[in-house]
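Shape matters. Shown next:

___
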Amino acid sequence: MNILPEPRVIEHMKGEFLLKGNMRIELDTSCGDKEFYSAKILRGAFKELGIESSIIKSLPKRVIGDIRIKIEKDMHLNQNKETHFNQNKDIHHIQNIENKEEAYCIEIKEDYITVMGTNSKGIFYGVQTLKQIVESGDRRITCTKIVDYPEFRVRGFYHDITRGKVPTLDTLKGIVDDLAKYKINHFQLYVEHVFPFTGHEEVWAHKDPITPEEILELDQYCINNNIELVPSIATFGHLYHLLSSERYGHLCELEDSKGKPFSWVDRMGHHTIDISNEESIKIIEGMIEDYLPLFSSNKFNICCDETFDLGKGRSKEYVEKVGKGRAYLDFLNKLINIVKKNGKIPMFWGDIILNYPELLDEISEDVICLNWNYSPEATDSSTKTLSESGRRFYTCPAVWGWDRFMNDIEGSFSNIEKMVSYGKEFGAEGVLCTDWGDYGHVNSYSSSKPGMILSAVLSWNSDSKAEILEGQISEREFGDRDIVSLMRELGKQQYISFMETVWWMENKMKKTTLLIERSELIEKYMLNKSEEQLKQSYYAAYEIEESFKDKLYENSKSKEDIKSFILSARAVGLLNSLYLYIKEWDFNEKVDEFIHDNNELSNLFEKWLNEYKEIWRKDNKESELYRIEEFFNEICIYLRRGDGKLC
């Protein structure tokens, strides 16, 4: 059985359960509305297989169901219970485990299947496991006993909806369905400017923001699926749109932030709020109190990461007086107090405060520090520091999708495996796997699924064998064991990423001071790509695209996902081809032979862009699609002019 996450204990026995034409899903009298919701999920799985099913409810003495669902609050393993297992196995008693409330047992017998949970959460996760078993396609299911419970109490996914794509409500619900399937119970959406904050119309107008009503509906949908939807907004750094507006630009740490053309690079690199201005905390407090009431969660993530410009501009005198660490901590604690005043537990990213570990004790003990490290070679140092400080913390790896059309599967898998292991070793409360959208969020959500699923699997059961999970994830999610390995290979071919193309474009058009200051470094970095390497990556991406096309014809389960991978492969190849022209036209490095004629390459980009827009619009609001379109239109003009100039 390919079940993800892998259950703690699976014991196969003699005999088979036969899926019939009309399955009765029976709820015990211990069950209520939440168990009824779980039963409907199972009924949906049967419907997908063309099997009719009905949901009934019976007294314990009149049990007749084919699938029997019941709550066993004192569920445990011993010789007097049906849930007894082979005593030679090293099995924990469910009543003694820390995360008992999410524990479940499944017993598949020849005549019926029983799903038991300690409460509604256990029932829900038991049903998710049984759903995967049913979806395997086998009409005859081997008689099996399963006992399962999670390793980490919190298993989360963090999704950026602010720097490119704003998903539709239906798309967000689809993501929730995916999270529930893999037993993730914590979900955050990253927001900077894509919410209609009161008085910030200049900031969010024309951005297709997520609406209060959509959040309320999504929150309820998450509750139904045993997922905590946690609010997360930028409150300190990464406030580009707020701090470059006419109304609030005076609160930016660096002066002259207003009236400049949009820059992806500047959005990532600048725009920390001026903490020396008393107006700043009032503005942020208003944003928090606008957003906070929409969520049923008792937590609120204030972010506070990457405050790059702190003390470099308007607050310089203040920061020099008190010290950068102290200045950061004082503003952080003001934000923490606002959140706590409104009855929520604050969360924040730990990258800045970890530079000042001596200040950790001055943060309230109930605050949760989000310890992110996205390196494939991540060490345990920051995790160990937080553990020794006694702080509450989650460990936060990444799916590695930012800046690129295909995620770096290899880098993300290494990072996730390491960070989950450090969380286990040093006592993290949870794992929060992040999916950032720097530079327009050009990759598809589908390309982030392997990393999200790996994190879900390991945070539920870290004893799972990571080296074999790639094929299992591919088969379970995409219906083909080769899909993720193709994604992995495509990730390696991004010799030129979208981010590097943005660097080149914005430096060339003088849209950002950040790159103009580093122009010599950028030129040296770009010239490091040889003609041979670019061509090899182009042709490798082409071959991978053809392989995805073959899979599209063979695969009935994941056609939309595979279509997005085909476009990703084409984008990777076209960007490698583009860079041959950049090398010769911009950096005067002679290219022996171009892959495409410049007009032909422009045509290929335009055809690709039209298909890309169609896929974007299926799952997302218009949001920043126009920026992607404008960017590639500029590339086509550059190619057609044939002289290395932009309009």
